[in-house]
Every structure is written in C-alpha cells, then in structure tokens.
Design brief:
The chain has 5 helices and no strands. By secondary structure, it is mainly alpha-helical. The longest helix has about 120 residues, at about 50-170. It is rod-shaped, with a radius of gyration of 55 Å. The two termini are about 35 Å apart.
Length: about 325
C-alpha cells in the first residue's frame, strides 16, 4: 500500500456494509484489495528503509483489519436493537387486538348477563307464586275446619236442647219456675257462646289475614333477595373473569419474556461464535491458508473432531 492510500477503498460503504457482512464471501473483494497491495509489496531487509517499509505495510494491514472490525461491531450493535423494536411493535399489536376482541365480545357478555338476570327474576316470581298458592290452600283448609267445628257445635247444641226439653217436659209440673229460670240461663249462655264463637271467628280471620300478609311480605323479600343475589353473582362472575384474564395475561407475558430472553441469549451466543470464527478465518487466510480449507478446519475444531484442540468461545 502507498503511504497516502485512502483506507476507504478497502472498507464497505455504510449503506452496503450490512449486506457485505451478512452475505457469504461479500467481504472477499475488499480483502482482495488488501491482498493485492501485499502481493505487490517487495520486502527488503538489507536496509533500514526497507525494514521500516515492512513494518509500515504490516501496520497498514492492521489498520484495514481494525477499520473492518469496527464497522462490523457497529453493525452488530445496531442489529441488537432490532429485537427491542420488534418486541415493542408486538406488544402494541397484542394490546390493540385484545381490546378489539373485548369490544367484539361485549354485546354477547352483556346479553348473557341479561339472560341470567331474567332467569333469576323468573325463578323468584315462580317461587313467590307457589308460596301464595300454598298459603291460599292453607287458608281454605282452615275455613273448612272452622265450618266443621260450627256444624258439630250446632249438632251438639241441638242434642243438648232436645235432652233438656225432655227433662223440662218431665219436670214441667213441679219445676215450672225453675224451668223458666233455666231457659233464661240457657238463652244467656247461648248468647255468650255465640258471642264467643263470633269472636273466635273474627280472631281466626284476623290471624289468617296476618299470615297471608306475612307470607306475601316474605315472598316479596325473597324476590328482592333473589334479585340482589343475582346481581351480586353477576358482579362476582365479572370480577372472577377479570382476574382470570389478568392472571392468564401475566402468565403469557412471563412465558413470552422468558422465550425472548432465551432467544436473545441464543442470538448473542451465535453472533459471538460467528465473530470468533470470522477472526480465526481472517487470521488463517492472512497466514496463507486457502479460505475453504480454513473454514473446514474451523468447522472441525468447533465440532471437536481434532483431538486436544478446541476454540474458546
């Protein structure tokens, strides 16, 4: 190489550097420029000037190596930022599609919740109606029992009156006054009995009305409680689903982060091994070994096919 030779002739342009470093043998033309300079150089050890020229040539080859190495490192650093940009785009995409999914499903979720509410109200109404029917049946049975009691009481009174009449007729002659008095007492007693019966009937009617009112209130309370429980169940179901979705998303995010870390580690390890292999290849070819032979040698060492020889990555 001449003293003022510009290294740009041996270094790929920035806009094409990525293709040169990632395409097989694309770097060869640039190395060929360096090789041509080396081949054209005639070393002279007989003079100090000749020895200085040898040192200068070696230094310029080293400069070419450093420039190429720095360019390659810069490209590798830029490439490391690509996964971060991809992850950011993926995250935004996932959040957007999740939101769209929830938007599409919301009418169905609302409809299902409304159907559950309607079913709960229907069940509460059916229970209340059944309870009202039972109360009405119990009330009718109570009325029938009261009528039976009144008939039996009337029959007993009639029997008692007949017996009393027979006794009265038997002793009418000698106990007319007493009979009159007894009749008056019986009339008074009958009135008291009638009054008691009427009072008892009124009391039973009032108790029946109170029981009916209480049953109606209980049915209403049960209906309101059922509605409240249905609403709470709906809220609980929504909260449970929210927690399940959040837990699932957290688990998926954790798994994805682990996969991303593993992929990054694999990529970095491959790049590291590639960098070392390229450096070894450059050293071997610079030492005169053909490139294909050098690559085969590196592959054999990497696969541990050469005893007592290995590459420290």
């Amino acid at each position: 190489m001449s003293e003022n030779k510009d290294l740009a002739a041996y270094i790929p342009a920035r806009e094409t550097a990525m293709a040169v470093f990632t395409t097989a043998k694309a770097i060869d033309p640039y190395l060929a420029h360096v090789r041509a300079e080396i081949d054209a150089f005639i070393p002279d050890l007989t003079t100090k000037k000749g020895r200085d020229a040898i040192a200068s040539m070696a230094y310029k080859v080293s400069q070419s190596k450093s420039a190429l190495e720095q360019l390659g490192k810069s490209l590798a650093d830029e490439a490391k930022e690509i996964p971060k940009k991809i992850d950011a785009t993926r995250k935004a995409m996932k959040e957007t599609l999740d939101a769209w999914r929830d938007e599409v499903r919301k009418p169905l979720d609302d409809w299902e919740a409304e159907q559950a509410r309607i079913e709960a109200e229907k069940k509460a109404a059916e229970d209340a109606a059944a309870l009202a029917v039972q109360i009405e049946a119990d009330h009718e049975i109570a009325i029938l029992l009261d009528e039976k009691y009144e008939r039996e009481a009337a029959q007993a009174k009639e029997k008692l009156a007949a017996e009393q009449k027979a006794r009265d007729e038997a002793i009418a002659a000698e106990a007319a006054a007493k009979a009159t008095k007894d009749a008056e007492e019986r009339a008074a007693q009958a009135k008291r009995d009638a009054d008691l019966a009427i009072e008892a009937e009124k009391r039973r009617a009032a108790e029946a009305e109170l029981e009916a009112a209480l049953a109606k209130q209980k049915a209403e309370d049960d209906r309101v409680a059922a509605l409240a429980k249905a609403e709470q169940d709906k809220l609980d179901a929504i909260e449970a689903e929210r927690k399940r979705v959040a837990a699932q998303k957290a688990e998926e995010d954790a798994k994805q982060a682990e996969l991303d870390r593993e992929e990054k580690a694999r990529t970095e390890n491959k790049n590291h091994q590639r960098k070392i292999n390229q450096a070894i290849l450059a050293a071997l070819t610079a030492g005169g070994m053909p490139e294909e032979g050098a690559k085969a040698f590196i592959s054999m060492v990497a696969r541990k096919e050469l005893p007592e020889l290995s590459i420290n990555y």
